[in-house]
Amino acid sequence: MNYGFTASSPSIKYPFTLVLKNDSIVQVKGRIDISDKYHFIKGKVNKQRVASKPSDTKEIYHITKAGFKLIGMPADSCWLFKAMQGKISLYSYLAERGSDNIIAIQKGEG
What number of other Cβ atoms are within 10 A of residue 7's Cβ? Predict the structure, then answer.
C-alpha cells in the first residue's frame, strides 16, 4: 500500500509489546500487515496465532537495537510511530526510526 510519499516497504518482524484496551499486556513476535486499508499485527501468543487491530490496543511498542522504545499510537486504520522528533514531528505507519513512509505531521508537543 502506498500512501503517496514513497513506495512502501514491507514491515519487519519484531518482538512487539501490545497494551490492550483492558490494560493487559501481550508479547507478540510478528510483523504489522500493511497489505489492507486496515493494518493489523499477526503473530503467536502461547503457540496460538493472533491478529490485533489498532482499535484493540492502547499502544504497541518494540525496543530498537539502539535501546529506544518505539511506541505506536492507535489511529483509525493503523498505528502511528514517531519517525522523527523535533519542532515538527513526523509519524510513520511502520515501526522504524527515520522511516520515509510518513503519513502524519505534528507541530510542537500538543
Answer: 7
Q: Quote the CA–CA distance of 40 and 72 in Å, as a whole number.
A: 12
> What's the grid cell of residue 74?
492507535
> In 3D, which of 75, 80, 76, 77 has the Cα closest to residue 95?
80
Which residue is associated with the grid cell 503467536? 44
Q: Mind listing the pLDDT tens digit of every residue in the chain (110 residues)?
A: 444 444 444 678 899 999 999 999 999 988 899 888 999 998 877 888 888 999 999 999 999 888 989 999 999 999 999 888 888 888 899 888 766 788 888 887 65
Question: b/e string for 83-92 if b means 16 or more Cβ within 10 A?
Answer: beeeeebbbb
Spell out the domain ranges in the chain: 14-107
- Could you tell me the pTM of the whole model? 0.80
